[in-house]
């Protein structure tokens, strides 16, 4: 049924509230149709599974919902898979790791605030300057050209970033449940999957640009007869890339699931959270 309609149901005695669940069922379609509908693709869901939307009391666990659906689907020799996601109008409770992540990001926000105050009072500190919003914003908006840069790469960066953002938007749309098999087939038979495969190659463009810049920097220093320190190079790259990647993994594995509500979102967020937790 409808998500908002389900959450709007009130039990007269106020003994429980309601929650909306989606249940992915296997074995409903005949084998020959299921085999046809499930090609060798990397889609985040099985096309041959049928997803049911049910409204149940909030006192029911996801395991209870799966067992109930198993009994209901037994008549057609089908069963509910482990992919059961429920959501109620009450916000999801914070887990221990969520509090830790919130503390880490709060410390980062505190550093940003302290750096802003230090800028006002003219305090020159290299650590605080790294978190300075004003300095970083000025660097981002600086359009002056340098003699030691490959200026044509700036345009390529913009093009690749737009393509990557478009690809991510396409992937999010594919993560959502299709409303009907007809709609799904219409999408898969269109040019969108082909475009999506093309976008995946765009990431290689960033690796190409990164390698080009590194090679350019190496040869430029080599021409000036500067000694190349391989160990320092890897240390610099590690400290430049790791903090941002670590923050991204931390957010995806903790706070991302709290960004929205609804069983469909829980299905999407859990698919993003689990790989980060497995790292």
Can you give me a brief rundown of this structure?
The protein has eleven helices and three strands; from the N terminus they run αβαβαβαααααααα. Strands 2-1-3 form a three-stranded antiparallel sheet.
Structure, described:
With 279 residues, this protein is mainly alpha-helical. The chain has two domains: 3-88, no CATH class; 147-278, no CATH class. 59% of the residues lie in helices and 10% in strands. It is built from eleven helices and three strands. It has helices at 3-7, 31-37, 62-73, 96-120, 126-130, 133-141, 152-175, 181-188, 192-223, 230-252, 263-277, and strands spanning 18-26, 50-57, 79-88. The protein has a three-stranded antiparallel sheet with strand order 2-1-3. The longest helix is centred in the last third of the chain and has 32 residues, at 192-223. It is extended, with a radius of gyration of 25 Å. The two termini are 37 Å apart. The mean pLDDT is 80. Residues 1-68 form the Nose resistant-to-fluoxetine protein N-terminal domain. This is Nose resistant-to-fluoxetine protein N-terminal domain-containing protein. Keywords: Membrane, Transmembrane, Transmembrane helix. The chain crosses the membrane at residues 99-123, 198-218, 238-257.
């Amino acid at each position: 049924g409808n998500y908002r309609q389900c959450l709007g149901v009130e039990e007269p005695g106020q003994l429980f509230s309601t929650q909306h669940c989606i249940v992915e069922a296997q074995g409903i379609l005949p084998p020959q149709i299921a085999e046809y509908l499930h090609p060798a693709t990397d889609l985040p869901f099985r096309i041959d599974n049928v997803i049911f939307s049910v409204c149940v009391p909030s006192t029911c666990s996801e395991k209870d919902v799966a067992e109930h659906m198993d009994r209901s689907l037994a008549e057609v020799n089908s069963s509910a898979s482990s992919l059961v996601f429920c959501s109620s109008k009450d916000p999801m409770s914070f887990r221990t790791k969520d509090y830790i992540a919130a503390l880490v990001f709060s410390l980062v926000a505190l550093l940003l605030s302290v750096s802003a105050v230090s800028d006002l009072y003219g305090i020159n500190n290299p650590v605080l300057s790294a978190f300075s919003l004003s300095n970083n914003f000025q660097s981002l908006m600086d359009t002056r050209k340098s003699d030691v840069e490959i200026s044509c790469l700036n345009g390529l960066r913009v093009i690749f970033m737009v393509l990557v953002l478009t690809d991510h938007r396409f992937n999010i749309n594919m993560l959502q449940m299709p409303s009907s098999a007809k709609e799904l087939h219409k999408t898969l038979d269109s040019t969108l999957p082909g475009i999506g495969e093309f976008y995946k190659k765009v990431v290689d463009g960033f690796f190409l640009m990164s390698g080009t810049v590194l090679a350019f920097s190496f040869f430029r220093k080599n021409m000036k007869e500067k000694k190349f320190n391989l160990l320092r190079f890897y240390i610099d790259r590690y400290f430049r890339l790791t903090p941002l990647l670590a923050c991204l993994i931390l957010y995806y594995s903790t706070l991302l699931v709290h960004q929205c509500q609804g069983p469909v979102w829980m299905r999407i967020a859990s698919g993003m959270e689990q790989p980060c937790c497995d790292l």
